Records
---
Amino acid sequence: MGMVQQPMFSEVAPAARRAFFVLAVFAVCLLFMFPVLWLILTSLRPVSGVYYVHRGLEFTLGNFAEVLGDERIVHAFVNSGLIATLATVLSLMVTVSSGYMLSRFRGPIARTWFGTIYVFRCVPYISWVLPLYFVTQSWGIYDTYLGLLLPHIAVHICFFSWLMKGFFDGIDPSMEYAALIDGCTRWGAFLRVALPSAIPAISALAVLCWLFTWNEFLFALILTGQKTPVITVVMAQFVSEMGLQWNLMSATAVMALVPAFVLTLFGQKYVVRGLKI
Amino acid sequence: MLLLIAPAALLMALFQVVPIVMGANASFRDWALNNPKKTWVGLSHYIDVITDPAFLQVVLPNTFLFMAVSVCGALAIGLCLALVLNRGFRGQKLVQTILLLPLMVAPVIAAIMMRWMFNDQFGIVNVVLEAVGIEGQPWMAQRWSAFAVILLTDIWLWTPWFMLLLLAGLQSLPREPFEAAAIDGTTAWRVFRYLTLPMLRPVIVVCVVIRSIDAFRTFDIVWTLTGGGPARSTELFSLYAYVHAFLNLDFGKGSAAAIIGAVIILVVGLLLYRLTDRVMKG
């Protein structure tokens, strides 16, 4: 890994201190990676070797093949992906205008809206997801895409409107005023001038939103049943129902990690930049 | 202007306000499957919950202990890592990417990994312990060891979040005070105590408040790791409400518990903001 480029103190750090630093960084990295590495290793073990992952060297991709042969799991992956993608697109569409409003308008309506989203951000999920079970059933959308998608968008509104406000606060409004004077409508100023400047920040939020929805568990547990399985719920059921098949369990978990990894790897630049605002 | 917030407001009304009102209504009724009339019972569910020894002596202490330890732990480790990364060294980008890894792992998957690693018969933790001559523990079968595994999982998951935000905060600090301190030959500890920490205060306060509110409602890792067991001894508030509503099928009591929790966290959130701000000033 790395070596100390600039010593912490003005005097040159002794070699021992430098070695200790490198070792410590290495150890911390290993500690952070270990659970994931162990999961990957377990997912590659055949049934005969899974209980003694640390012994023996037989590896197989059979677990992945077996998991992919399970119709319910494949269905759950497709559902999770679809819901995460749709929730991302729709949440951003809804919150970008709400955040813009919070950033550019003053007065009682803007204040009330800000107060509302602030309070709702604090309400524990369980307090509104419990009754949502009955609400979605009485509207006939329980255990459907719609019944999971809409609550997901609703939960993102508070936090994302707040972040979007921050993004727009960082953009100088004078360009929009210029556009307004030139005869542009307020909507035109928003869509043609403000929105394009906020694109990098919005991309960061898109990555985060996709991850949140893909990883989400409680909503899916309460609002879906047999018809619309999603991957987090299927995995949690796995633990209780097939508690001993750790090789299949791990293979499923590794496959659920892959899309999140790929997305974050390509989107890390945006996420880091977006979260800093 | 109203058009800009109309879609968001409509969605929130339908999927947050309506359920909350309905939950409040249910909390005053005998909303069990065997009672289709849903009789009005007044405050009796609330009294049930706040006089329930399990709620008072297990669930509430667990929830607050979880909140305190997991937030402090992740903050302390996150701050250390942010300080190290802020120094800048070769390979820093790679190290940062590795440390951000837990941020993308679903809490359910993290819980599954830990459950496997702490498995009493085949888990790697016990294998290593036995190799160095310490007796392996049935981690998930004892209250405090199970609770410790839950805490460990949560700290592992959330340390990168603190690290990322604190690192961003560190990088936005002005350089001059640090240069002046270096010229004066101030020790590293004094620079940290009297320069870095006070200047980082706003970021730390925001991080602690946001994360505490979220920690209070933690559900997924506990559900997957222990299910609240052994013998309901690691239950947190969200699990308590869920168990009463969906496993005991007493929706009224579950809703009452959920509303009590919401009130507690609104009050605690406010107090916490004041407290953190004052502690950081003092």
Note: DSSP finds twelve helices and no strands in chain B.
---
Amino acid sequence: MVDNEVKSILFAGVGGQGILRASDIICEAIMEAGLDVKKSEVHGMAQRGGCVTSHIRYGKKVYSPLAESGSIQTLVSFEKMEALRYLKSLRKDAAIIVNTEEIYPPAVNMGDAPYPDDVIAFLKEHYGKVIHFNAAELAQKAGNIKTANVVLLGAISNLMTIDQSIWQSVIKKSFPEKLVKMNLAAFQMGIAA
Amino acid sequence: MKVLMSGNEAIARGAYEEGVRFAAAYPGTPSTEILEEFCKYDGVYAEWSPNEKVAVEVTIGAALAGEKALAVMKHVGVNVAADPIFTVSYTGTNGALVIVSADDPSLHSSQNEQDNRNYARFAKIPMLEPADAQEAKEYIKLAFEISEKFDTPVFLRTTTRVSHSKAVVTLTEPKKYDDKTGFTYNADKYVMVPINARTQRVEVEKRQQALKIFVETFPENKMEINNPDVGIITAGMPYNYAKEVFPDYSYLKLGMVYPLPEKLIHDFTSKVKIVYVIEELDPFLEEQIKAMGIKVIGKEIFPYNNEFDPGIIKNAIEKKTQGAVSPYKETLSPRPPNLCPGCPHRGLFYALSKSKAYVHGDIGCYTLSYMKPLEGLHSCICMGASIGMAHGMSKALKEKGKGKVVGVIGDSTFLHSGITPLLNMAYNNSDALIIILDNSTTAMTGMQEHPGTGFTLMGKEAKKVDLKVLVSALGIQHIKVIDPLDLKATRSAIKEELAKHGPSVIIAQRPCVLFKRANIKPKPALKVDPDKCEGCKSCLGLNCPPISWKKGVTKKGSKRKGISFIDETLCNGCGLCQQVCKFGAIS
């Protein structure tokens, strides 16, 4: 990392997908790794099916918890079409991790609007690094669909330089004991995805 | 020790480190977590009061008894509490009193975006504004120190981005609690009849003068002289945004936004060539600095509404109109927040929409029902307004409004500020129907206790108000209790009560589906029988998240273009769609 370069990650998805928990875990891991970190999200109505985003910014010294539009290096989209909603925030050379699970917005449910097709092809056409997989299916294999957020953390950990031992210890601290094994398995699924 | 904390968690921690053991609040985004965190510390007393005015009065009482007391609310809560706040500014606080106002630029979860810095000037109360979680923890301590030193209430203002952002915070050893409680008798100071208030009014001005001297050397008003070409005067979160994009400019970061350090500002502006004042919402600093005869650039280039971010500041100063662009040009379907699957409000509003009544709404999850297709309410102003507005409309419309005016209000909101307007309805006798949506909790802000839940913030069992008895005691004669997930009974109750003379109240009782203590066991998910579904879309009128409609699935010999589906991972089997389906296709 360049001396005082601040890196920005954007988590985006739908209320109820565990985005806030995942962003807490990644921030704890960054802090354990000895860097300054800030994150910002808006919650309140998040449980009610609305869009949820979380900005994560880290480096030697971080001022703003929000990234400047067009400056984000990594997008982790917890739902497929949500990736398209935030492209304005990304740098042209951004890496994108996409959970290919589809959650229909109300207008699509009503049959009034189509779900966008070829999301992945579009992303690949415009961005150099697009990693895509169905995190919900992998989470199911790890033991529970709710661990999809940790699967995605596994995937982004491949793009960061934080020791595996730090991730492991932060995940252990973040869940009740009976859920730790399953979440560690989910994390490994994400690394391998 | 370093920990990751939100601004709200840091305020709770800072208060505890300062030796504060007394706090009161009414929940409201983005302030709610402050008391939820504070109440976990050893030896504290913290309560949810029924509304912000009560919370402030409770803390004034505690301060008068010698405590350091903390009152917490969202920006619009300060409107509710304004009455005691303006006069405690006259009496002073004896112990210490800090009022946290959590403002919401961009209206993430609010009905307006008022800038509560204006309250500081209006009520002549000093105000601190932290820029991140670490500062939030330190500033709450400073706020208590200033309160004690100057015998004044002090505001701590946050914004959503400070309250809800997390940052690395260094913890310090908490001070030991210093019990200074006892009785203080001083009627001249604490009885605000005109003769005493006139004297205290003068004391307020003396205090203002003393504070103006104090702020000149207040260490949290920080000057950073770098590049002398450009100077930026700012406070709170916008400081971080500006530092991000213009790290080399000179800064005057104000930790105290009222009163202003006039000498320091003159000193700073004399050291730089151009001065920008960067502040979200109102030109609060800008107008005061301009009144000091200093030329600054402010709202002519920066927005007066919505929160800022680094890009907004950069584009404004560099005069760029075009920000970053997305390569994706199609329109994406929005994801508006919606009532949860199984939400009891859905049944009530579905039934109510069939009554064709004019519905005055209130503040809570149920406000979301205004959207298509439910279109459940037609107005919403502020906490408790639905009842007074329904009464007023009913009175104004006279015969025209008979059987057509309804007010809906949640249980927590009713107890917050719905009781007096309902008393008024009984007293001045109008024909409106009020529906109390009793889901046993304060759902919108995340399941906080209130006087109707039977528990306190500290988790103790408490006296539980009986809404039916309360409504009856106010003088309402027609009262009906229903289950809003029983559509037939809900519809007929609405019809009957709308037809009656005089005010009626329906209490729609069913706990929020997310409410853990209600221990709601989800019923098995429902399924659509594709052989029976006619594709009529009636069930879609409920706007329930698991229900979708897909084209192209046709039954032999039917004219239908598609059929409904239920996502079994989301459905909790509440049965509303089953009651709506005319073809018995859902089971």
Note: Chain B touches chain A through 57 residues (CB under 8 Å).
